[in-house]
Design goal:
220 residues; mainly alpha; 3-stranded antiparallel sheet; 8 helices; 62% helix
């Protein structure tokens, strides 16, 4: 036998033996079972979607119903509910913990939940609109009270009673009149700005300076 014949002979020997009739039959059955399982899953998905569509349609027909809550389900089934609800024009939200009690609740658009209701549902609580309104009003009242309190604390109260201050000097009537005419001035304090003006002329000032200078010379 030549070299080429030897190589071909060894290659034929390494090939796996052809499957037996029994093995062929088993493989065919496995393939048919996989196809049946796939068809079964497809039918189950279609059946679930049809069920959800029926629930949504029944919900839409009830004019007095505002919301519909579905039972807990896995992510795939929730995606079906979201899809059907979106097509129907509904508002959907998911609540609960994944793989524990995660579920979907849908609302008609005109009855979409407010932030307060969503917050309560996320906490696993029943939403009480009356209680929320009272809590909101109480919060606003407390905020207003705090603002008024801050304003009161920031108000500056004069330490001097100007009526009493002037009364023992010029009499009660004059004191009241003086207190009314006195106005607060950022530069001069609680003294009339008009009274703070220097009304002297240049000649008056020069005369006063000469008099003070002369007085110092006389003392020396």
């Amino acid at each position: 036998m030549d070299l080429l014949g030897s190589i071909l002979g060894s290659m034929d020997a390494s090939k796996p033996p052809p499957p037996s009739e029994k093995e062929k039959l088993l493989k065919k059955k496995q393939k048919e079972l996989a196809a049946k399982m796939e068809e079964k899953h497809r039918e189950a998905k279609l059946k679930f979607r049809t069920k959800v569509e029926t629930q949504i349609n029944d919900f839409l027909k009830k004019e007095n119903e505002k919301t519909l809550k579905f039972s807990a389900m896995d992510q795939y089934h929730r995606s079906v509910v979201h899809d059907v609800s979106e097509i129907a024009g509904l508002v959907t939200y998911s609540f609960g913990e994944e793989d524990v009690d995660r579920h979907i609740q849908v609302w008609k658009k005109e009855f979409s939940p407010c932030e307060g209701e969503l917050a309560a549902l996320r906490r696993g609580e029943e939403w009480d609109p009356v209680k929320e309104k009272l809590d909101k009003e109480e919060k606003e009242w407390r905020e207003k009270l705090e603002v008024e309190r801050s304003r009161t604390l920031n108000q500056v109260t004069p330490k001097t009673n100007y009526h009493s201050k002037y009364e023992h000097l010029i009499g009660l009537d004059s004191a009241l009149d003086a207190a009314k005419k006195t106005e607060t001035n950022a530069q001069y304090g609680m003294v009339s700005a008009e009274q703070k003006k220097d009304r002297r002329t240049v000649e008056d000032i020069q005369a006063e300076l000469r008099a003070k200078k002369k007085q110092k010379v006389d003392h020396v």
